[in-house]
Write a structure and sequence with these properties.
binds cytidine-5'-triphosphate, 35% helix, Rossmann fold, alpha/beta, five-stranded parallel β-sheet, nine-stranded mixed β-sheet, elongated
Length: 412
């Protein structure tokens, strides 16, 4: 017989692993097993409803720790939620129901799990699992937006797939290995982008026709903001050059607001410096307008019933990412462009490959316009010199992590 190795207690990292009541709760056991196997101490907590899905004995057996379920546990001296939060380097809620997301968003502390998360001294991670209709409900969307605004909770998944009812959609919990990996990243303290400077652009540009009108596009900026937030969470120093969007600035990110492609160009030049040494990577998620009115009227253009509507002559905007690529003399900064296309997957990939070559960038994120524009989710394929990955559908946050995983590899 070989005994389980006991790591040096003082160097063991501690995860408070909280389970709330969804069918996916059984997968929390596997997350616990992976964390214990990696040498971490896992303190399990369960809501009362979670105990209906998974037996506490299973979790305590895997973790080698008692399961805490009750804030008022009489055997415990003092405040259990404070003691757990004090000990935990990371509080992870796996699986997280729509209900616990709502309670976290509003700072509720009405059970042991919510109170421990509210009291956490370090990062909090949630792995949501719910029926797709609950995930897409405006209330859940609003709660997630509020958590993103507060910038204290990382969200892993969910993914598209079959859920317990047999329905298929966005709401299936991320796989235990993905969740354990995200927890490991948080435990590492310094993420895998620590020490890196990343410039992200996001949103549309508005090109003025006159003082009140502009040419624009439907980009919401969500993909770029998710990239900025996740890059920051993974340790990067992030400058976010944002076109006109109504999104809150992710915590810890330096934001520069611009309106036009010309202004975005200037903001990029400023962030990168003359030798492009100001960034290790540039991620161009912005939908930069290819054309602008050749000359914007200084005064509002008036309609004149007696004559034809005015024609708007267009001028081409500079291709900002291609311009940066042409100035680059070495591998840095790593350049990531997006290809937002209409058409089927094969034609989207074809355009993406062409952009990779024409713009001389390192990675192109290919996505279809009807699945991306204005949606919280997206479906993308990553195209680089080595080829194209399969298309993956997920939340923009989850996709941001996949894109950043590839960026980390490209940064070497
Ligand atoms: N981009 C840029 N500067 C521009 C236009 C686009 O840097 N003036 C970047 C975008 O941020 C995105 C990528 O290039 O990363 C998109 O490529 P683009 O050539 O704009 O795609 P389309 O306009 O869709 O291309 P096409 O005209 O070939 O359809």
């Amino acid at each position: 017989m070989t005994e389980r190795p006991r790591p040096n207690e003082s160097r063991r990292r501690v995860v408070a692993l909280a389970v709330t009541g969804s069918i996916a709760a059984y997968k929390a056991v596997e997350v616990a097993r992976l964390l214990v196997k990696a040498g971490h101490r896992v303190l399990p907590l369960m809501t009362a409803s979670a105990t209906r899905f998974v037996g506490p004995v299973t979790l305590s057996g895997i973790c080698g720790e008692p399961v805490a379920t009750d804030m008022w546990d009489p055997t415990y001296p003092g405040e259990l939620h404070v003691a757990l939060a004090d000990r935990a380097d990371v509080v992870a809620i796996v699986s997280a129901t729509a209900d616990v997301l709502a309670r976290l968003a509003h700072g509720r502390a009405d059970d042991l799990v919510a109170a421990t998360a509210l009291c956490a001294k370090g990062p909090v991670l949630v792995a949501p699992a719910m029926h797709p209709r609950m995930w897409s409900h405006p209330a859940t969307r609003a709660n997630l937006a509020e958590l993103a605004r507060q910038g204290r909770v990382s969200v892993v998944g969910p993914v598209v797939g079959p859920v317990a009812s047999g329905d298929v959609g966005m709401g299936r919990m991320a796989e235990p290995v993905e969740i354990a990996r995200a927890i490991e990243e948080l435990l590492a303290g310094a993420g895998d982008l620590s020490g890196r400077r990343v410039v992200v652009t996001a949103g549309p540009t508005f090109e003025p026709i006159d003082p009140v009108r502009f040419l624009g596009n439907r980009s919401s900026g969500r993909m770029g903001f998710a990239l900025a937030a996740r890059a920051r969470a993974r340790g990067a120093d992030v400058v976010l050059v944002a076109g006109p969007v109504a999104l809150p600035t992710p915590a810890g990110v330096e934001r520069r607001d611009v309106e036009t492609a010309e202004q975005m160009r200037a903001a990029l030049a400023d962030a990168l410096g003359p030798d492009l040494g100001g960034a290790d990577a540039v991620v161009m998620a912005a939908a930069v307008a290819d054309f602008r009115p050749a000359s914007a009227s200084g005064t509002k253009i008036k309609k004149d019933a007696s004559s034809a509507p005015p024609a708007i002559a267009l001028a081409q905007n500079p291709d900002l990412i291609a311009e940066i690529a042409s100035k680059r003399s070495g591998p840095k900064p790593v350049l990531v462009a997006f290809a937002l296309e209409t058409g089927d997957d094969a034609s989207v990939l074809g355009y993406a490959r062409r952009k990779l070559e024409q713009k001389r960038v390192d990675l192109v994120v290919a996505n279809a316009a009807h699945e991306s524009l204005g949606h919280a989710d997206n479906r993308v394929a990553l195209v680089d010199a080595a080829g194209a990955s399969p298309f993956v559908a997920a939340t923009k946050d989850a996709l941001a992590d996949r894109i950043l995983d590839r960026l980390v590899t490209l940064l070497g």
